[in-house]
Amino acid sequence: MIEPATTRPSALPQTVRRRSEGPVDILELARPDKRNALDNETVLGLGAYFRAVPEGVRAVVLAAEGRHFCAGLDLNTMDESGVFEGVLHSRMWHGALDALIGSPVPIFSVLKGAVIGGGLELASATHVRVAERSTFYALPEGQHGLFVGGGASVRLPRLIGAARMTDMMLTGRRYDAVEGERIGLSQYVVEDGDGLPTALELAQRAAANSPITNYGILHVLPRTAEANPREGYLIESLMAGIASGSDEAKSRMRVFLDRDTAGART
Length: 266
What we know:
This protein has helices spanning 40-51, 83-101, 118-124, 152-160, 162-171, 177-183, 195-207, 211-226, 229-244, 247-265; strands at residues 16-21, 24-29, 59-64, 107-111, 114-116, 128-132, 136-138, 175-176, 188-190.
């Protein structure tokens, strides 16, 4: 059972609720009346949390209250600011969402209902995405005279390709949960209501891994994937040596080998 605790580290605003399940923190966007649209306080609060993940937390589930994950930027927070202010606002989003990508622990997001605009940018900054069947994805900025500003033009083409993102922005095309999983917007599709239990189970499984291995998966793997093969192989070898040489890896391997040997004797 997930305890209904609502404690918050000092960095978290009222729009984000925190509860814990062992080594897994569950963060929930808590603006269901606004379809969890993101204001500056929420974005900055999430960034601050992931720059200083509480001690003992080994994985995080990012979910949302209500029927929708996130309908994007809270348009009520937009004003008649000038060009330079718009640049600074975008860079603020970049800094906050980079903290998610750079998190020392894996982040599993639970998607449902609207995952559009800034909501899709937020989801794409998490490491594993679990989509309920109600999920739909869109980038409506093109129809509003806007352009994405939270990092989507960098992250989404790496997930789905530039051509698909171009189509979404030019035509307003939407993808449902099944289509989204097929093209790479999520890794899992589950029935409505099963998103949080599924993501929590996955997060608990990841939390049981060696922290060194998880760090390599989160921070080294993306770089080897982007590197040319010669550099990628070298980076991989360095990470493999670091992981296998750790005390935890040696301890885990001894347990595995002892169990394997015991099984062979029976």
